[in-house]
Amino acid sequence: MRDQDVRRIPAELLEWYDHHARVMPWRVGPAQRKSGITPDPYRVWLSEVMLQQTTVAAVKNYFHQFTSRWPTVRDLARSSDADVMAAWAGLGYYARARNLLKCARVVAFDLDGRFPDTYSGLIDLPGIGPYTAAAISAIAFDRQETVLDGNVERVMARLFDLHDPLPRSKPLLRAHAEALTPATRPGDYAQAVMDLGATVCTPKSPACGICPLRPDCVARLAGTAADLPKKSPKKPKPTRYGIAYLARTTEGGWILERRPDKGLLGGMLGWPGPDWGETLSDTPPFDADWRDFPGEVRHTFTHFDLILKLRLARIDAEQVPVSYQIIPRHDFRPSDLPTVMRKAHDLVRDR
Ligand code: SF4
User: Fold this and answer.
1) Are 208 and 220 in contact (CB under 8 A)?
2) Active-site residue flag, 48
3) Tens digits of per-residue pLDDT, 118-147?
4) Do 24 and 159 reside in the same domain of the chain?
5) Tens of pLDDT, residues 157-211
6) Which of 180, 207, 227 lies at the terminal end of a domain, its last residue?
7) Same domain, 69 and 115
8) Tens digit of each residue's pLDDT (9 = 90 or more) over 320-338
């Protein structure tokens, strides 16, 4: 692509964004920004943490619940760990929730409730990596930072017709994205590229006919757009096996354990049971008259598939070891559990 063509791309994208920006609960749209309204860094930060590895559709409801219950970073910082983990249940990647709370407490108690307004200040906070620091500093503070997510990578690969496969091509895609990031309206620009990738330059069938970049897009002209970006073949996912022990007291209370802070589903409530592995380990957490349940839970994590067998029992509350929590029947809310644990409950709840 010629230099003069590259130079006009940011302005073309911003003009498109002015008319086609997606409406998001955390977003200050281009018209509002032009009228002087600036984004609330708390809402931008919260949305960016929630959006890590998670779709916009899945995040919207959680974002609404969090901001209704905790409208400011100080409100969130004062809440209990258990309340935040329960509110996060179902969103996955639970280390994010633990770091969210740590970060809220640093901002509220050490930084007087104000988020740092630069990449270097933001990246020092818990749970904020390079992508999130760039996104917050661009979107909340209009800093000239480049935000590179899957949408932006796809747009860059197509715009410049780059056939090197991901993830090896990331540095090259970043270099192109950085070269395009403008000094004026960098926050709107970052959101414009992401919106274009999410709504027009989509993975399977890019809508080149309505794309503002179609005159300059090299892959469109070459007829290769739908094949890009190329990706290195993924390794097959391993399968792990486990048993969840779902016990109730004779009064109907559920017996759960709080998982250790570190590791998968860290800090969340869950059904007792040994670690999941390549072979089945059948070690009941405590003595009870355990019986097999005829169904099993299948769940997909990022790095493995899980097959979880279930065992059921009834036990007197006095016989439950103190390291477990008994949640009385009327206080038990399946929505406080991570998805895999909730699936197990949903299978056995009437037994
Ligand atoms: Fe994507 Fe087509 Fe636009 Fe190129 S012209 S950026 S391939 S939608």
Assistant:
1) yes
2) yes
3) 999 999 999 999 999 999 999 999 999 999
4) yes
5) 999 999 999 999 999 999 999 999 999 999 999 999 999 999 999 999 999 999 9
6) 227
7) yes
8) 999 999 999 999 999 999 9
- Hey, whose CA ends up nearest to atom 2 of ligand 1? 208
CA of 157 to the centre of ligand 1 (A): 10
Atom of ligand 1 nearest to the CA of 154: 1
**Domain co-membership, 260 together with 286:** yes
* Cα(19) to centroid(ligand 1), Å: 18
Alpha carbons 326 and 257: distance in angstroms, whole number: 9
Q: Ligand 1 pocket test: pick from 213, 218, 221 the residue with the most ligand atoms within 8 Å of its Cβ.
A: 213
Domain boundaries, position 323 = 239-348
Which backbone phi and psi does 270 adopt, to 5 degrees? -160, 175
Give the pLDDT score at 290. Answer: 96
Phi then psi for 239, rounded to 5 degrees?
-110, 135
Other Cβ atoms closer than 10 A to 206: 23
Index of the ligand 1 atom closest to the CA of residue 208 = 2
Q: Which ligand 1 atom is nearest residue 200's CA? A: 8
Q: For the CA atoms of 203, 204, 205, 206, what is the dihedral angle to 10 degrees?
A: 20
Is a pLDDT exceeding 90 seen at residue 261? Answer: no
Tell how far the Cα of 141 is from the centroid of ligand 1, in angstroms: 29
